[in-house]
Every structure is written in structure tokens, then in C-alpha cells.
Amino acid sequence: MPGKKLHFALILCVLLGIGFLTTSFVSFYVARDSLQEQIAESTLPLTSDNIYSEIQRDLLQPIFISSLMAHDTFFRDWTLNGEENPAQVTRYLSEIQKRYGTVTAFFVSNKTKNYYHTSGILKQVSPDDPDDSWYFHALNLKEPYEINVDHDTADRSRLTIFVNYQVRDYEGRVIGVTGVGLAVNSVTDLIETYQQRYGRTIYFSDRKGNITLHGSDFGDDKTLQAHKSIRPLATQILTSPGTSLSYNDGAETIFVNSRLVPEFDWLLLVEQHEKIGDQRIENTLLVNIAISLFITILVGFTAYFTIRSYQRRLEELASFDKLTSACNRQVFDLVFEKVTKVCRRRKEPLSMICMDLDQFKEINDTFGHPGGDAALRDVAAMIRSQIREEDTLCRWGGDEFVILLPGSDRGNAMQIARSIADMIRENGVRFGRENIALTISAGVTEYRDSESLSSIINRVDQALYSSKNAGRDQISQA
Q1: Buried b (16+ CB within 10 A) or exposed e, 102-141
Q2: 121 pLDDT band (50/70/90 cuts)?
Q3: For residue 270, is it within any domain?
């Protein structure tokens, strides 16, 4: 039988492997034949969407930080109380910058127009200063915050991505603007990460075509118009919030997908080379083959162990009584033969108890078969609680049970039988709201050397009949 199970599992693995490999290779050739269409209409736009989503996700943290600052009662109370002790807000901003790793943190009061920074008060903002136009724009926002790219007030040489968040008093009036700054270099590092992850060329352009951010493999062009190959497509890219195009650089076709990032008012451009796409499909084929082999092996093992488990379950169903979980007579024959050999070899005693429930028919008549089943099930459980693990309980038939006790003489067997009878008499069986009173009659005997199973069963049955004839709830020895 083990050989048949293994043979079946191997055949299943072969069939699954053939099916998986056929599907993988057919998919590979179909995908390779339609590579350009797939890249232009599906793969590249999807990658661009993923990159766009990740950029937005990476911007969520500074937005979240700015929101916490804007809703912190410290800013409100400190501002409303006259902005006394500026060192307090300076320390607060320093802690924000240190804890979250931002390049700057700031707060501008609408009352005093003071620009508070981690290094102190940098200046007073003025509507006449073009560098401060961001602040007065932020005051009138319909949304609570905006993201803009500007030179840092603390360091005009540093281009920074700012999150400007309105601070409102308890009546909802704007009393200032707070926020944090994210270094443009950090976004450049993200671009490098995306390029390595997706195998694409990624860069940003403003709405005039100026290249604002790019990765290391972009080149030296400063504008889309200066890019020799993409120049004919520049107008179409810049006038559309999103498009998919392709151009040829003389060696291969390059696909371009553009998408507007409204937070920056920049265009995100993602390029993919045709050869890279082909390589990715080949890599996908290899991954599919590896996954297919893994699934095939997994299914094979699962099939093998499932069949083995079902076989064991069938053996259990064939070997044990479903109601009481006691072994049946066929199994008891094998157990008896094995146990008698061991006891003879070790020169140990072997005893047997045969018992049945007194007036079991009346229980069935009174409580129905469910009540009779409950009685048999609970009696079997009580018997198990009084015998050892090496002892064997068998449901011999109907309400009759046989217990085989290796290593126990007749005296020990009598004690065990009395313990079982006392427990059943004292506890009875609970059936719904009723308590079924039960007693048992039992016969006990000790195995004689070289005695057959039928012989010892006959003797212990005679002892059981003696108990019945004596008025039930009795235990007799053969």
C-alpha cells in the first residue's frame, strides 16, 4: 500500500508539472509576442501608478507630523497667551526635527509674523517679501495644508519640500502656519530606490519641461526639449496630465509613461527599455517555473499525506467502535494474541473482565436510543478512567464490554471491576435534564496458559451470567 500511495503522488506531480510548465511557456511566448503592447498599455502604466502611490505614501509621514503639530494644544495656548518665552517653541521644533529626521521644522505666528525655527526666530514674514509669499498663500487655503517645493528660509541654497499646515485657535480662526521640511535629496534617494526595485528610469519635470529631479542613470539633459530623442514628444507630454508614448533612441524602443503629481505640480516620467521588459518576462517565466515546481511538490506531498491520513482514518473506523471509541472484536482478537505471547514470555498474569449494563433495554425504552447511546458512551469513559493505558477495552456487542488486563491477576482484576461498578453506580449518566441510574454486572477470570480466546471468553461469560442470576449489580469470578 505505501508503494501505491507514493506511485499515485508521483503521477499527480508529473501531471501537474506538465500542466504548469505548458501554461508557463505558452504564457511566455504570448507575452513576448505582445511585449510592446503590454508595456505601453499595461506594465509601464501600472509601474508608474505604483511609484506614484509610493511617493504619495512617503509624503504621508511629514503630513502626519505637521498635522500633529498643528493640532497640538501647545502651539495654540502658547500663541494665544502672547508667545512668551520663544525658547519653548524652539525646543519643541528641535525635538520634532530630531525625532522624525526632518531637515527643518517651523512655526510662523499670524499675530507677530515671527518665523520660529529650531535655531530661534529667523525673521518676520512680510507680504512685500516674495520669499514669504508661501505663508500668505497658506493662510488662505481651503484645505488645512499644502505641499510646496521652495528654498529653505534657514538655508537659501537648500531646496526643500515643505508641508505647510494651518494652526487654528479653538474658534477655528487661523493663528499661524506650522510644518516640516523634507530634503529634495531624500526624494532623489527614493528615486534611486524605485529604479533599482522596478528596473525603470525615473525623473520629474515641471510643467515647463525643466528636469527637476532624476536618478543617476538619466543623463545630463536639463530639459525635455534638450533630450534629443524625446524632444518631438515634449509638447505632448507637457500639455497632458498623463500619457503613454514611445520613442526610438537608435538602438531600441523606449516606452515613456507620464503622470501629474498634483502635490508638486510636477510630471512623473517613467521610462522602460524594451530589452529590460523582455528580460523581466524571462525572469517572470523562471519565477513561474519555480513556483510551479514548488506547488507541484507541495500538492504531491499533500496528496500523499492526505491519502495516508484517510487510510489511517478508515483503519480507525474499521478498528474502533464509533460510539464508545473502544476497539471492536476483530481488533481485540489481534490484541489478545499479542498480549498473551508477551505475558507468557514475561511469565506475567493476565486477567479479563466481562461486563454489561443491567436492564439496558429499559433505558432504551424509557429514554430512547439517544439515551441508550449516551449511557454506553459515558460508561465507556468511566471504564477508561479506572484502567491503565496498557489495558484494552473492547465493546463486545450491544451493552457488553470486555477488558483485557495484562500484568494483573484475578485479585487485581476484581478490585478494578469493583471500582468501575462503584463509579457507575454512584455517578449514573446525565442525559439532558435527567440522570439515568445505572449498575453493571461483571465476570472476572484469569488467563490459563495456552488458553484460546474462545475458551477464556466462555469462562468469563459464565461468571457474568452468574452475576446476572444473583440479582444484578454483582461481580463473580470464573
Answers
A1: bbbbbbbbbebebbbbbeeeeeebeeeeeebebbeebeee
A2: very high
A3: no
